[in-house]
Amino acid sequence: MAKDDFERKDDIYSSKLKAGKRTYYFDVKETRNGEYYLTMAEVMKKTDGNGHSSLIRHKIFLYKEDFNAFADGLQDAIDYVRNAKGEDYGTEGRVYDEEWHDEAKPEQAQPDEASEKPKGYSSDFSFDDL
Predict the structure, then answer these.
(1) Of 125, 128, 127, nearest in space to 14 by CA
(2) Which of 32, 40, 51, 91 has the greatest number of C-beta atoms within 10 Å?
(3) Model's pTM, two decimal places?
(4) Cα(63)–Cα(78) distance, integer angstroms
(5) What percent of the chain clears pLDDT 90, i.e. is strictly above it?
């Protein structure tokens, strides 16, 4: 993953959420005509059988006209899970280590800090903030 993938001039706001093996990035960007949109990326470290590490990234682009429908759809899905599993399901505030280490290969180097987004961190992200 190129360093430029995370250091773009069109970033207006960024937050980062570390969650175990995954890191989530929430970025507000601006189009050429001044409109804002949101990108959400999930980045995971994978190690193959030969001990080679790679980063896997999945990204979603969300445009302003879809903010409300997306937030409603996400909230509906969360409500369904909580109704099926109990109101407290998913609210226990899981705690993760600052860095994830591949226990099968402890000698493997961790991702270069320069490859990680140096911007804000937030575990209190809410879709109401959109």
Answers:
(1) 125
(2) 40
(3) 0.59
(4) 21
(5) 44
